[in-house]
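User: hey, got a sec? need Glycosyltransferase, GT2 family folded
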Amino acid sequence: MAEAKRNQRLLKDFAEAQRLYRDRQFSIARKRLAAYRAGIDYESFPRQDRRPAEQIIHSSVVLVSYGSGQGLLDCLYSLRKQIDPHFEIILVDQGGNESVHAELATWPLLWVCPPINLFPSEGRNLGAHFARGEFLIFLDDDAIAHEDFTAQAWFGMHQTQALALRGRIRPRSPDQPTPAPPPHYDLGEHPCLAPANLEGNLVVRRAAFQIVRGFDPLIFGHEGRELGWRLHQARRHGAFADTPWRGIYYWPMLQIRHDFATGERLATKRARHALGQAYLDTFAPGAFDAPERMDPALAELTPETLANQLPGPGITLILRAGTDLTQTQRLLTSLIQQAFQRPIEVLISAPNAKAAVAMIRPFLVRLPIRVLSPRNLHSRQNLSDLVGLGRYASIALVAETAVFSSNPWPTMLTTLEQQAVVAGPGELAETLLLCHRWTLGRGFTEPLDTPLPQLIKRLTIGG
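Assistant: Yep! Here you go:
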């Protein structure tokens, strides 16, 4: 009982701090907030935990929702379609979703219901408190996530060693007349340094988030910029000195669909941003600076140099040969007739590496081919390990029985721009698979000898 009364008092402190913030009494608001943060007990908040206990996860998707109803369900449906299963969902329900409570009760997620509306920043902090993943993915509760959204979050964080990534927003209703979205929604096709100014599509390392104590609970408007500024400050002062973590980046492949606010909602949003900017001007000077000014050590990282750290725009073709190399030879003969339109390499795993090396010699003038030695393969237990030996961003898995009578690559590569996995056309349907490299990344534990039709079924159907 005493604990409950204490929490009630602290929640009143939070509400009063919010009122003072809206009245621009920022210093007093921060003092009231400090009392709340020092004593609030998140563990006492009502919650239902239906997360799979044995699930292997790398990311925690945090949704903070107030009155989204069907929009929230649409967001959850998009998460259900993810090609990457290694994430959990944490829903912080701040009210107004009673019409969908019956369906929410069936979802395998953590459902937290704070006693009052804590607004987005503190709601995200609450969700992060219960997270188990290495990465926190903050997603707008009425956004539609691309099917590779969580996979790109994991892949982008590992490729850049970033403290945080911000993604890209495309219109949810592209055919409806709406105001042009602000420029920061879409920064183009290339990864680059960026502020953390897209809170509804933001990935942060959980350990770094904990070190800087998460979002400032007062702010609703530019809260991502303020968090990013503190992450940069912490890095400059050595908080992450024993890690390779660095910088905040724009990752264009991290995509959601979400419409920009219009009408009264837009006016309200602009007022929030004006209030947030006034707060940041006092307590986070430099939060609106360019990223390289926040952390001069990052100035040398440009889109071009960052791109050099990523897998190149080509195809790594993986072929698992048998003891009889006749079929493999026939496959390579048909393969050299193809026009790939981008760089390609071929990796061959074969029981008899010496025979395979002799067999590939006539093809080396046309194709870069590597035969993987048994020693190299001995410590590699699954396909994700094998993929790690390649240099390119697209992976093609080819059965040795495949024969290319026509050129499937232009169509398959175009399709790959819209989806994560593409099976071969026609007679190649069970002998050719093209996918993004991260599709077979960590967590994809299929053994090296898994039949290709089984892999195609799992990746294209989820079987």
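Quick note: The chain has three domains: 1-41, 45-306, 312-461. Let me know if you need anything else on Glycosyltransferase, GT2 family.
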